[in-house]
Each structure stands twice: as structure tokens, then as C-alpha cells.
UniProtKB/TrEMBL annotation:
This is anthranilate synthase. Keywords: Glutamine amidotransferase, Lyase. GO terms for biological process: L-tryptophan biosynthetic process. Its EC number is 4.1.3.27.
Amino acid sequence: MPHLSDLLAAVARGADPGPFALVRREGADHLELYAGPVRAVDRLADVPLPAGPAGPRTLALVPYRQVTERGFACVDDAMPLECLLVERHERVTLADALAALPDLPVVTTDVGFDVDDDEYAATVGRVLAEEIGRGEGANFVIHRTLRATVQGPPLRAALAALRRLLLGERGAYWTFLVHTGGRVLVGASPERHVSVDDGLIMMNPISGTFRHTGATPDRAGLLRFLADPKEVEELYMVLDEELKMMATVAERGGQVVGPYLKEMSHLTHTEYLLAGRGSKDVREVLRETMFAPTVTGSPMENACRVIARHERTGRRYYAGVLALLGHDDAGRQTLDAPILIRTAEISPAGELRVPVGATLVRHSTAAGEVAETHAKAAGVLAALGLGPQAPAPGRQPVVGHDRAASARPGPERPLADDPEVRAALAARNAPLARFWLDQRAPGAAGLPGLTGRRALIVDGEDTFTGMLAHQLGALGLAVTLRPWHAPGPLDGYDLVVVGPGPGDPGSATDPKMRALRGLLAGLLADGRPTLAVCLGHQLLAGLLGLALHRRDAPYQGLQREVTLFGVPRRVGFYSSFTARADADRLATGYGSVLLARDEADGAVHALRGPGFAGVQFHPESVLSPDGLAVLGELLTDLLPVSLPAAEPA
């Protein structure tokens, strides 16, 4: 391994070896060494991907601020999008790398979080009350950063930390060090954001955190964790959010595989895999999936606004991605992009940053989320000498490509193989929509009265509309998506769907509410077939004269069985507002409207009138096992089959 030896010798002499990266991918028995010049570009579309033989071409370091490419809000810290152009590529065996990397302690001073525990807890409380409680979204990730000063040469310290991560961490998707000249990033990210290989796009939502101190989690505690409603709902919500992204980049949306356990040295997570076929340029795939809901929240666009309101500093590279772009043997583009979490950034002056965040949902407590940020930092802190070292796993890191084996903590069987644990994981899929879990043959769900009809979906800033488009397409409709603020004709569409989105439907000043309210009023006046979903349903109910009410407890990521026009249905809700009524029928200027109400509080779950319908829940959600059936029934009523004219006698 001459190049790695030369590189490490230069570091030992105090010389700068030039930009390089060392990467161990999950289960691999080797590290990849990439070296070459670094170039900054403005946009993801500008990331170089030159033609050539099979192999990696560019390693891109994508900061969080790139969300501005999608028009999303952020605290802009001007961090550059840097690209390491791969001119030299070597493989180094894991054993050789461990022997060569420096085995020395990392000394730090001035250690502390930029936001202390009390201040972070107060922020958690504000987000729960002011954002989730007011309908701004289902979950949000708020970060804080542990800061310190590294004593001695920063690059040597990072290489020593990499060695300790390779020995002490397990279950990481990528364990890596990237040196650009202006910064060093070293970490062990558990989470693939997105990958593309042979036209197969994969994403990997991970959520739910079980903290432990031993090399193997406590079995009884793990089973309690797997049954905890907060942890279950947290994973379902990020699953829904990443399915929204897959709906944008994969031609038929994503198929859900899992769930699995992700066992690491200090934490155990639960995870799903999503897979779908697509043909987009990999840089466009990256752009359309900025960034994972596990590090931002949902709905994505409003999550960015909430983060910008409550985080006082920019995120730098936290929640961004490393993205390795290249080509395969057939010349097709490839992509592998882990999320930049569980990662330390070290400046040339020795300034250390370890950012961590917690996912806030309606069940969150301030104390619990404070503790979660400490636990998430523990693996990186241990490698840097800032926290307790995890107990030794009992042998060298496992090699090979078996997911369960790569997470094995020692000679004992991993808990992922325990029958009760496997049963608890499998049970998580029982209440979910089979539409997203099963293989779907094209046309299998099509309805004769809908096939070939055209639908327009108006997006209220929630990309659930992408999933809704796939379901309507499966029923046979040809679907067009349009943002709420984009003008366009309505003629030529058989159906207009006014979709979901965040915000207060009672607002008289919000431009989005005024625009959608005006759209619905015009649709009702013209008698155009209309379906309204979630926010659209609330606005429709208001136009029909129903009172809107903010729920005492938000229905964010909540699955319920409700009775819809005499039929029990299990569906998923993401809402903080609802319409209320005290009768099952409502006389309106647009005709008599039938309401499906909650017997307890009068909340209107759905409504049907002449030529229009509305649903408060999300039929497209993975939490709606009966969603496709509900859509089929409503649309068959809204778009009746046109019978052929009778032949003349």
C-alpha cells in the first residue's frame, strides 16, 4: 500500500499530503483511498461526472445550505459545495489500514455544547407547542453542536480517531475521513441517504433510538423500545417522508423492505429500506432528495422554515451528505451518499465540531430529547477521546456483506436474530398499507371508470402529493402535479385534487390559504369534480360553512380506525386542525353534503357532496392500509363511467 504509506508519512512529518478520503463501506474488508484536487461548485448540477472507465469519479461534500437550490429556507453559513476529483483510487485491506493509522490519544480542551441542556430543552418545548401544536408539521429535527479544541496536528488527530472508529464502532454505513485542505471530516454514519446502482434507487430511513452502554443491548429493554408508541410512530413518519422523495425520483415510487435493527456501539436504531427504479441523472436524484427527514423533519419545505426559526447558527455540513459519483461497467451512472451525521469536523486551527440532533414529535419530552443528543454524540466523542470508550466488541470488525453479520457485536448471536425481536419488528408492518410493501404489477389496481381520465393535483407544500400521484396513477388516471402558486388552466382535467400542506387553514392573510380557498370556491362554482385532502379538506369544509378547530393534541402521524359513510376504515392522519359538525348532513349552497363524523367530538373525517369530496386523513400514507380503497370509491363516485350512447332504433 505505497500511497497510503506515503500519505501517512507526510502527515507524520507535519506536511500537507493534499486532499484525500478514506472510506470503509458497510461490511467491507477494505478501505477505499481517493485522492485528487478539490474544486468548489455552486450547484449540484455542476458536480463533475466525467466519462471514462468504470469506477468513482467525484466525492462531493454537500453542505446543508444547498437546500437553497430548492428554494427552501436556511441559516446560510456560506459553506462551500466541495468536490474531490478522484485521480487516484486504491484499495487498502482493513488489517493494513489499522496497522498503518496512528494509534495515539486525541487531546482536547474547552469542551462544551454551543447550546446548553436547559436552552436546548426550552427550544424543544417551543417547537412542540408553537410548531407541531399549530399544524406546521409532524416532526422536526433541531440540532446542537459540541465544540472543543484539538491539541496537536488536527489531521493526525482525525486519522487516530478514524482508527478508533474502525475498531470500536459497528453497524456504520460509511466509516470515513475526508481531508479537503480547508477542513477534515471524520465519522461513522449509520445511514445511507440515497444510492443508485444499475438503475435501482435506494433510500434508508432510520429512526427510533435505543440507548445502551454495553456491547450488546439489554434484550428486555430492547423489546420495550420496539413496543414504544413514540419510537414506532417516529419511524413511520420518516418512512412516509422518504416515500414522498422516492415518489419524485423513482418511476413507480418506492417499495418498502424491512424493518431491521441497526445495532451500533452506543445505540440501536430501527430502519427500513426503500427501493425503486429510475432513470434520472444522479445529480438530479441528489437535488430532489435534499435532505433526509431524519435530519430535518416533515413536511420538508416547512421543516426547513422551522429549523431556520429555531436554530441560531447554520448547520455547516451536518444533515448534508457525502456523495460518491461514478460509472459502472456498462457506463451507467452510480451514486452512493451517506448522511453526514455522527461526524466530527476539524478545522486547520484545531477547532472541533460534533453536531447532533433529536427528532421532535408530539410524544417528545424535553428531557428525553436532551438525553438523545448526548447519546448520539457518544460514539464520535469516544473515538476523539471526549467520552467513555465503548466496550470492546470481542474481535476485529466483521467483514463480508451480510447485514446481520456486519452488526454482530461479538461471538454471541445478535439480537436481530432473536425470535421475539424478529416478531416485534415484523409486527410493525401489520398496520401498514400493502400498496407500499408489496410488488405492484402495472395496471393491477386500475379501475375501468378511471383509466385514461386526467387529474390535476395542486400541491399545498407537502410532497405527500407525489405519493398521491402514484396511487391515482395506479387506479388508472393520468396525473399532473402543480404547485399552489403556479398559474395554469383547469380545462382538460377530469378531476382537480386540492392537496395537503402545513399551516393554519383559518388564516385570512396567508397567501397560500387565500389562493387555495379561491381555487376551491371556483371549482365549486363551476361544478368541476374535486377531491380535497387534509389542508384542502379543511379549506373546503370552511367554504361549506363548517367551523374549524385546532385540536388539543395534534394528530401528527396518528393511525385511527374511523367510520366513513358506514364502512370502518383504518387511515393515517397528519393534522393539527379539523372541521367540526353536529349533524351527519349539511345543507349548503352547493347542495346537500354528507359528513363522516367522529361520534365523540364531531370532527369531520370526510365529506361528500354533488361533484366534490374531502378527506381529513392521508389516503396515500403508509399509515392508511385502506387508503387506496377509499380513493377508488370516492373517485368512482366523482367520475362515473360514461355509458355509450344508445344505438338508434
